From TrEMBL:
InterPro entries: Biofilm_reg_signaling, EAL_dom, EAL_sf, GAF, GAF-like_dom_sf, GGDEF_dom, Globin-like_sf, Globin-sensor_dom. One of its GO terms (molecular function) is oxygen binding. This is Diguanylate cyclase DosC. Residues 356-489 form the GGDEF domain. Gene3D superfamilies: 3.30.450.40, 3.30.70.270, EAL domain (3.20.20.450), Globins (1.10.490.10). It comes from Acidithiobacillus thiooxidans (Thiobacillus thiooxidans). NCBIfam families: GGDEF.
Length: 749
């Protein structure tokens, strides 16, 4: 291609003659009626290619893209072919990289256009009585020139964007944030789908540390480790050079776990460091077609990214070493009090996230001062070292011990499900410390007074948890030492009562003590029963019928919740099938706990349950989740909801209005309905603010075609207000209290 150039930005292909321009215009006039159709063909051609990107899914965006292509085709034949025309071609090249359309796709597009337009040009030449060769030659020259200019602009912008991204990358100092920025750049350079950082653990194992852009099935490997000689990552470490396989499943490096997760192509680049290789940057293809080879210019950028990643990993190691010196007790080697607040805050967050218990044990050594004074400071130091060693040895793997001050230690016990575990740990600590310390013929006793604060029963800030454990420790010391005590006797009694309830819950399912009661859902105008909500009850052998408020929170913290949840779904579906077979087409609402929503087997269980009850009308089955659970992981929740919707089931957000949910989340979650909580509905009669809030929710729900049920309706005035707002469904004591299935059946008539 011949060019006239005044610099990179002004380079344009050779000029087209007036005769060329005239021929192209005549051809454009002839083709104009077919340009819209040709633009559609071009769009479909792009979509059909193996390396096709994710084109805009939004209808408006797709329409704009089609319009852009049609406009480009019209201007292609309009002339004049001056600087403004070639600027437009450069802009089109840049727009393609913004749409993430690979450069080979641009080339394939022009190949398609040459074929399509050449045929059209020949037909037009016959119609216009033009020499076909004379008409086709400038057309092919024009397409070649446009492809050249677009490709050049595309590459120039890609390089420019890469340089900008590398500059931004150099200004990111947090390792996790740095990795995500580096991963985005690496994915863009390799035209891949995701990336992960693998580091060596325990010398001979590889484990993922960070992910970016990888599917959930792949992120399940977050805590999984594998030998550092396996897979493409292991091979890259062993060789000390990148390993790329475009067909992972058929390669010698394929690992079944990753094949099952959908990995199609894999690029593993070892990460260098001053002390040797530090890990691997693993770039992955799942949806996109892996290229046959990685272009050499892309390799340069990818190697630079891994070099920068290596520098940040090494810097992190140095920071950890320096932090260790500042936060480590030099005598015992234990963490010191500088990390107390951070460790406790982290443990509290973990306990809340995993619905488990966390205990802080505050230990003070009884009799240490006489040992230090009478046997000497060196004996005192040796005693502290030995106690620290013994405490560490006596702990579970998930627990930790630190030296708080002088002769005070702290133990952080995590991931407990029963208060008895905290008791056992405290007793073991008492027994571990208890000993006699000798020097010559002189023997002095040593023991520990321990205060125990258990979260979340003892709620508060990290500092308050420490203070409470400290108070309990002094109470143990005042009681004579060599023992442990909970922060508060009342709390201790409450914990013991809770433990007894946990014990009874474990036997409730096998003894058949759980019951389902049903509360009708009615239409407000006219008043008719349109549905029923299944509510769990516990027929306790000594305490009688218990409502969910007396046991559900404890039940949801136990693994038993899965089995109970299955029982609820099975029982409710069986009853619903019976009603439906009798001609009562009720909407049946079933509540799901957090653990059920996160259970990967839930979908299969629902399918099996529906198969067991063929008379159940699936489009009348509603699954309810409270909004705080739904918003924990919106993408995961949305995926589960979509899968259930494919079965014909509906999802509804329960207790709507009590948490952080906005109606916009309903769109993301694709929920079909909401339940307005009693705390929002009940005050409407006397609170204009609540009245306006509920009306706003109802109006927006109507706009989104979301089904609304008002809960806790207990008087006629509230029902009338809701009816006037356009709320069609409600439940509450005004209509009926929860009842057994037989009574509900009788009410249906």
């Amino acid at each position: 291609m011949t060019t006239t150039s005044a610099g990179p930005e002004s380079a344009t292909p050779a000029a087209f003659s007036e005769q060329d321009t005239l021929l192209l215009k005549r051809l454009g006039t002839t083709l104009r009626p077919r340009l819209a159709e040709l633009a559609e063909d071009l769009y479909r051609h792009i979509q059909s290619q193996p390396e096709s990107p994710n084109l805009p899914g939004d209808a408006d965006q797709a329409a704009r893209l089609r319009a852009m292509q049609k406009d480009w085709l019209e201007k292609l034949f309009a002339g004049p072919y001056d600087g403004a025309f070639w600027d437009t071609q450069r802009h089109m090249g840049e727009r393609h990289i913004e749409l993430a359309i690979p450069l080979p796709q641009i080339w394939a597009t022009f190949t398609f256009l040459r074929t399509a337009l050449t045929g059209a040009a020949i037909r037009a030449a016959v119609t216009e009585q033009i020499d076909p060769v004379a008409g086709i030659t400038p057309l092919l020259r024009l397409l070649d020139a446009c492809q050249y200019v677009m490709s050049t602009a595309y590459e120039r912008k890609r390089l420019h964007d890469a340089i900008l991204a590398l500059r931004r990358l150099a200004r990111v100092y947090d390792l996790e944030a740095f990795f995500h920025e580096a991963a985005k750049l690496a994915i863009m350079e390799a035209q891949a789908d995701g990336a992960g950082l693998l580091c060596q653990e325990d010398g001979q194992q590889l484990q993922y540390r960070f992910f970016h852009g990888l599917p959930a099935a792949y992120q399940a490997f977050a805590r999984w480790s594998f030998p550092d000689h396996l897979g493409t990552s292991g091979a890259a470490l062993q060789r000390g050079e990148p390993v790329y396989v475009p067909d992972y499943a058929q390669s010698m490096y394929a690992m079944p776990e990753f094949v099952d997760a959908g990995l199609q192509g894999s690029l593993a680049i070892p990460i260098p460091g001053p002390e040797g290789l530090q890990g691997v940057l693993a770039i992955s293809w799942f949806q996109s077609q892996p290229p046959t080879r990685i272009p050499e210019d892309r390799w340069d950028h990818l190697r630079l990214i891994t070099d920068l990643l290596g520098a940040n990993l090494h810097r992190e190691k140095l920071e950890i070493r320096m932090e260790g010196l500042a936060t480590r007790d030099m005598l015992t080697g234990l963490p010191n009090r500088r990390v107390v607040t951070e460790r406790i805050t982290t443990a509290m967050a973990r306990a809340e996230r995993h619905q488990c218990l966390f205990a802080l044990l505050f230990l003070d050594l009884d009799g240490f001062k006489p040992i230090n004074d009478r046997l000497g400071h060196h004996v005192g130091d040796e005693t502290l070292q030995q106690v620290a060693h013994d405490l560490r040895s006596a702990l579970r793997g998930e627990d930790s011990v630190l030296r708080y001050a002088g002769d005070e230690f702290m133990v952080l016990a995590q991931d407990m499900t029963h208060i008895s575990e905290a008791e056992a740990i405290a007793q073991r600590m008492v027994e571990t410390v208890h000993r006699d310390v000798h020097r010559g013929e002189l023997t002095l006793p040593l023991s520990a007074s321990i205060g125990v604060s258990v979260y979340p029963f003892d709620d508060g800030s990290a500092e308050e948890i420490v203070h409470h454990a400290d108070l309990a420790m002094y109470a143990a010391k005042q009681a004579g030492g060599d023992q442990w005590q909970f922060y508060d006797n009342d709390i201790g009694e409450a914990l013991a009562e809770r433990q007894a309830l946990v014990h009874d819950l474990r036997h409730a399912l096998e003894r058949g003590e759980f019951r389902l009661h049903w509360q009708p859902i009615v239409t407000l105008s006219p008043r008719q029963i349109s549905g029923a909500e299944a509510l769990l009850r516990w027929q306790h052998p000594t305490r009688g019928l218990l409502s969910p408020g007396e046991f559900l929170e404890i039940l949801e913290s136990l693994p038993l919740m899965q089995a109970v949840g299955h029982w609820v779904i099975e029982t409710a579906c069986a009853q619903a099938a019976q009603w439906h077979s009798q001609g009562h087409c009720l909407d049946v609402h079933i509540n799901l706990a957090a653990s059920q929503l996160e259970d990967k087997t839930l979908l299969d269980f629902l399918k099996d349950t529906l198969r067991r009850h063929p008379t159940l009308q699936q489009d009348h089955l509603w699954l309810e989740i409270v909004e705080r659970i739904a918003l924990r992981d919106i993408p995961a929740t949305a995926a589960m909801i979509r899968a259930c919707r494919e079965l014909g089931l509906h999802f509804s957000l329960d207790d709507f209005g009590t948490g952080a949910a906005a109606l916009q989340y309903l769109v993301e979650l694709e929920c079909s309905g909401i339940k307005l909580d009693k705390s929002m509905v009940d005050p409407m009669r006397n609170s204009p603010k609540h009245h306006k809030m509920v009306r706003a929710m109802v109006d927006m729900a109507k706009t989104l075609s979301i089904h609304v049920v008002a809960e806790g309706v207990e008087d006629h005035q509230t029902a009338e207000i809701l009816d006037a707002m356009g709320v069609q469904h409600a439940q509450g004591y005004l209509f009926a209290k929860p009842m057994e299935a037989a009574e509900m059946t009788q009410m249906l008539g």
